Amino acid sequence: MKTSVIIPTYHRPRELRDCLASILAQTVLPSEVLVIDDGRLEEWPLEREFQARGIGYRGFRKDAPGLTASRNLGIREAHGDVVFFLDDDTTLHPDYLEQILRVYEADPSHEVGGVGGVIANVKPQTWPRRVRHAFDVFFLQSGSREGTILPSGFGVDYGSSPYPLEEPTRVQFLAGGVSSFRREVFDEMSFDESFRGYGLGEDKDFTYRLSKRRRLVVTPFARLDHHEAPQMRYDKRRRGREKVLFQYRFFRDHVRRGWVSWLFFGHALLGYLLARTAIMVLSREMIQMGLYPAI
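The structure assignment produced for this chain is given below.
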């Protein structure tokens, strides 16, 4: 199978270079790499190295910013039978692409439409994280099986629970920066660019819609590391607002089933607001005590 790797990037040339270097170190190399730049890269990192290995390398610059639009541009330009999406601040373990492709190769009938890997360097499950997980479970924001959508419309995110997947598993959504898809699925659907106004969640919306048509699988054997760049430190109030807007839209469009489901959604939203308020208050107190740096 021919493979395309699409990497949207924005003002992170050093992280992008590390990501590209990890692709060159793969046990199975891609057919092409497409870098979609929303910033102003002075040069395309490692372009000559990819060309020397016989890997197609194309860079694109966009005037209108936005991750979703970058993904759709990459889809239109990609030639591979399987399309991978990576964040620019990730580095792949050496057999990441190989492990993903194994799932597709074991599916000659093309029932599987998308395959995801996992982030290896997630935060450990310390007791405060376990307490927070129990809180989220009570308020229907999380659960015991990662990759599922709850009756509240919230999803059990990967790395958020004490019960990570241990074998290739069918799921209901994939994380955008750790995902891949058969090229043919994009003949029927694409990422919804209207999510730019909602900030978060276009990957969850797209993959959940896809899960209604084809199987989605996450394999824990395909691993990468996510190195959160300083540019990832979003304004917390704006981030919280975007989260609420997305959850409402996702619930409305995909989960709502009468008045009882609104109770589930309201219960989860109350829990989210209580948690964010507690975090804000505790962070302020810790800053004043000099125990936590102000950002």
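Interim note for the steering committee: Confidence is low (pLDDT under 50) at residues 286-295. The chain has eight helices and nine strands.
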